[in-house]
Design goal:
Layout: E1 3-6, E2 13-15, H1 18-29, H2 35-47, H3 65-69, H4 75-86, H5 95-104, E3 110-112, H6 116-125, E4 129-134, H7 141-146, E5 155-158, H8 159-162, H9 169-179, E6 186-190, E7 205-208, H10 223-231
Parallel strand pairs: 1-4, 1-6, 4-5, 6-7
Antiparallel strand pairs: 2-3
InterPro entries: HAD-like_sf, HAD-SF_hydro_IA, HAD_sf
GO molecular function, one term: hydrolase activity
Keywords: Hydrolase
């Protein structure tokens, strides 16, 4: 049997920009900020890494470093880590930090990469098992459903549901088991050499893509379709 595992953020989907994120929440909550203040707040939120799936923090303060390292192991840790980073940036209403966190989980905050549908559908039509393996603190299944990609995904292995994060091989093992797949005949596709590269410990092949805005990466997933036939051969 052959299978392909995909990371979520930065691989199949890209989260909106930090400025778009803040603008959407201000509009949803009926708040307003002068344009210079809005842009400055967006820059500050990006610098502290407040947007899940967005830019990494320029620096993780010593106090929350332990929490940050484990942030994807549970819903509670994820919320605490990201709202804690967000609250390092003054906003006109403290409730905006919780509203920002809620916004990033909405399907509207995410855009599939242009070739994601084609690749997932082609794998599905070939009978190739597909799983999403993600370090995440919330359920992305509604995002896949809203964008019409859920029918092409057979299983989800999410860190917060299992209390373990990539690169720990156990999370990849969960995905392979859900698909009934031999890891030696499985391909892992992701954007992080550190996190997604952990699949190699199980014997999976690993293919990396760049974490770029969706418009700047129209076809980086297409090579996956050329790699899949190789997975059907007997493992060495």
């Amino acid at each position: 049997m052959t299978a392909v595992l995909f990371d979520f953020s930065g691989t199949l989907f890209r989260v909106e920009s930090t400025e778009s994120w803040l603008r959407a929440v201000l509009e949803e909550t009926g708040r307003d900020l002068p344009e210079p203040e809005l842009k400055e707040a967006a820059r500050a939120l990006e610098a502290v890494g407040a947007l899940p799936g967005g830019a990494a923090p320029a620096r993780v303060p010593e106090e929350p470093a332990g929490l940050w390292a484990r942030r994807d192991e549970s819903v509670e840790l994820h919320r605490a880590a990201y709202t804690g980073m967000s609250r390092r940036v003054p906003l006109p209403d403290p409730d905006l930090h919780d509203a920002l966190y809620a916004r990033h989980m909405s399907p509207a905050a995410w855009t599939p990469y242009p070739d994601a549908r084609h690749v997932l559908r082609a794998l599905h039509e070939r009978g190739i098992g597909v799983a999403v393996v993600s370090n995440i603190g919330w359920d992305p299944r509604p995002v896949f459903r809203a964008h019409g990609l859920d029918p092409f995904v057979d299983a989800y292995a999410l860190s917060y549901e299992h209390g373990v994060q990539k690169p720990d091989p156990r999370l990849f093992s969960v995905a392979c088991a859900a698909l009934g797949a031999d890891p030696r005949r499985t391909l892992m596709v992701g954007d992080s050499r550190e996190a997604d590269g952990g699949a190699a410990a199980l014997g999976c092949r690993v293919h990396f893509v760049d974490h770029l805005p969706a418009a700047d990466r129209p076809n980086a997933l297409l090579p996956v379709l050329g790699l899949v036939p190789d997975l059907a051969s007997d493992p060495a």
